[in-house]
Amino acid sequence: MIRALMFILPLALTIYAFIDCLNTPEDEAKHLPKVVWVIIILLFWIVGPIVWFAAGKMRRPPVGGRTPSEWHRNHRHEWVAPDDNPEFLSSLREENKKDEALLKDWEADLRRREEELKRREQGEEKDKGQS
């Protein structure tokens, strides 16, 4: 039982530290970038999680107030669904107008080419009939 615990406890600690590191905002990771912390946790799977918990993450807000990520979480603009967002809908209308104009130009060009092909075919048939 103790042998299993000696393997399971560091593994569980590593998994917990890894997930905690991934969920931590970049501005709350101390001393090193978050990617480096992930590598340290995974490479040194016995010591890495302990170092992460001890020195890698801000655990308390600074003396002056909140951490930057807490401020951003509280001051976000409320998300609006695309079908309720008038700016998005107007941009769709503008894109639709551009697409319709391109489609009309393409259709006109296609008609012109078809007419040219018909004229060429009629001209070749007349040439064959005269020969």
How do you describe this structure in short?
With 131 residues, this protein is mostly helical. The model has no long low-confidence stretch (mean pLDDT 81). The protein contains five helices and no strands.
Shape: elongated
Which residues sit in consecutive blocks of at least 5 with pLDDT less than 50? none
- The secondary-structure element order is HHHHH
Instruction: Tell me the total number of β-strands.
Output: 0
Percent of sequence in beta strands:
under 5%
What structural class results from the helix and strand content? mainly alpha
Beginning-to-end CA distance, first to last residue? 103 Å
Chain-averaged pLDDT:
81
Give the helix tally: 5
* Fraction of helical residues: over 70%
| Overall radius of gyration | 33 Å
Largest sheet data = none
